[in-house]
Q: What sequence folds into this?
């Protein structure tokens, strides 16, 4: 008899996986829940049958049976769609094979009723645990409420603001320091900076890192060389005009994300400047945008997918007592990526 289900069969169930693998339903269940009581060869055997049958655990059915939720929530307030997408890819990678599903929820950092809004989301969607992205992750009152309500969570944050088991640090300040040091090494002394929203901890950390390196090198940061953006391409265009459409302008502009850096590139072209001959431009994130333009963008690479994966694994460790996050890092490391949008200042 073929091990494949007949074409007339219904959607495969855990009973089908147990029958085809020749194991008990209880053993298959242990594999699905990543129990340490299962031998590795048994785990591989069940995984092969699951793939062969196309079995996918039903989170709602599992929730009803175990009175546990198998749904994670990702709460964000960030206009950068590529960043959100990369985080989501990492989270889903961690969830693969665990039976947990992911629901996205856009929040509003400025909303005074944000805590009540998120509590409502958790209740309506029967969320088992939350991953909070910056800037929402910096709301300590929200984290305290979640702890009081017994709702597991993990924050992705520019710096350590919670217990190691509940946070992934993106090291934004270090990344900004690395980029500024590189620009100074190219001979640039008049460096413009495009920041994100002032209420955003990530934006403040990047600006602090930039200013720190400038001071260490005896360089000043005039107010006219700092433009405030909103982490969007359009705000980068506006910032570029503010910084560049003047007689005394910077020789390089460092934008605190790639979308705004591309906006600065557009402004430079509109003002008749060549990049990098007349102006160097640098970004932050190394998103997909960084290589779709010419010159391609010198930037700071953040392992965004990896951050999402680590956050999800830390959250799953809270939800499943049989898993310990002992090997999961506290922080990720930024990396300088040098491309063609920056050059030596003569």
A:
């Amino acid at each position: 008899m073929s091990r494949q289900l007949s074409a007339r069969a219904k959607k495969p169930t855990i009973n089908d996986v147990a029958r085809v693998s020749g194991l008990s339903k209880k053993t298959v269940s242990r594999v699905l829940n990543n129990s340490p009581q299962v031998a590795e060869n048994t785990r591989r055997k069940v995984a092969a049958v699951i793939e062969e049958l196309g079995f996918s655990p039903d989170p709602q059915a599992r929730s009803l049976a175990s009175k546990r939720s198998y749904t994670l929530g990702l709460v964000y307030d960030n206009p950068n769609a590529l960043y959100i997408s990369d985080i989501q890819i990492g989270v889903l990678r961690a969830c693969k094979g665990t039976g947990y599903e992911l629901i996205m929820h856009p929040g509003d950092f400025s909303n005074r009723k944000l805590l009540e809004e998120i509590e409502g989301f958790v209740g309506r969607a029967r969320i088992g645990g939350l991953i909070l992205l910056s800037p929402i992750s910096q709301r300590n009152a929200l984290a305290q409420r979640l702890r009081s309500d017994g709702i597991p969570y993990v924050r992705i944050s520019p710096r350590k603001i919670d217990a190691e088991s509940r946070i992934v640090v993106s090291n934004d300040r270090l990344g900004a320091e690395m980029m500024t040091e590189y620009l100074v090494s190219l001979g640039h002394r008049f460096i413009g900076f495009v920041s994100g929203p002032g209420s955003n901890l990530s934006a403040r950390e990047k600006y602090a890192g930039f200013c720190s390196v400038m001071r260490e090198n005896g360089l000043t940061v005039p107010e006219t060389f700092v433009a405030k953006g909103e982490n969007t391409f359009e705000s980068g265009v506006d910032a570029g005009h503010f910084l560049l459409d003047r007689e005394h302008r910077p020789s390089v502009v460092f934008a605190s994300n790639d979308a705004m850096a591309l906006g600065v590139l557009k402004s430079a072209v509109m003002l008749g400047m060549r990049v990098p001959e007349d102006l160097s431009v640098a970004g932050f994130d190394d998103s997909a945008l960084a290589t779709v333009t010419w010159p391609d963008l010198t930037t700071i690479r953040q392992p965004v997918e990896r951050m999402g994966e680590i956050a999800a694994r830390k959250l799953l460790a809270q939800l499943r007592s049989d898993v310990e996050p002992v090997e999961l890092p506290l922080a990720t490391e930024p990396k300088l990526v040098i491309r063609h949008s920056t050059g030596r200042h003569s």
